[in-house]
Amino acid sequence: MTNETVLKAKRGKRKTSMSPEGLEENLKKGTTELLVLYLLREREMYINEITDLLLERSSDRLNITFPYAVVYRLLDAHYIELGEKCIAPDGRRRQFYHTTPAGEAYLEQLLVVLDRFMGGVYEILGAENLPKVKRKRKPKAAAEAETSKVD
Questions:
Q1: Residue 58 DSSP class
Q2: Separation of alpha carbons 128 and 53, rounded Å
Q3: Residues 6+ apart with CB under 8 A from 77
Q4: Distance (Å, whole) CA 43 – CA 49
């Protein structure tokens, strides 16, 4: 096996910038804070609720692998803060989070940047060049049953 063959084999397994998986990973990293702030702007939530809602609204396409890391970064930056604590029916403690005024301002800045960037991407690609992706949606009852199992 040549060095080139070995490198190609390794590249196929890793998420590099030279792969569709790598692009997806980079897009997720660049938008995760925006998405969490956007959801928390709507109402206070606990971490599992944030990840469940993200999955639901994205038709199971967006999942945060390490939600605590995102939340802690946003807490450290003072874009979100601790909200109410309560005990769930299963006895677990739920820590809720909500946005701060600084987080609201930051979110607005991120939305402007995203709009400008994605607008440019779509201008270059043109809608006719985008693949038509069929969305797979679970029936709402099945999704709710699955969500209740996680909590």
A1: T
A2: 30
A3: 102, 106
A4: 11
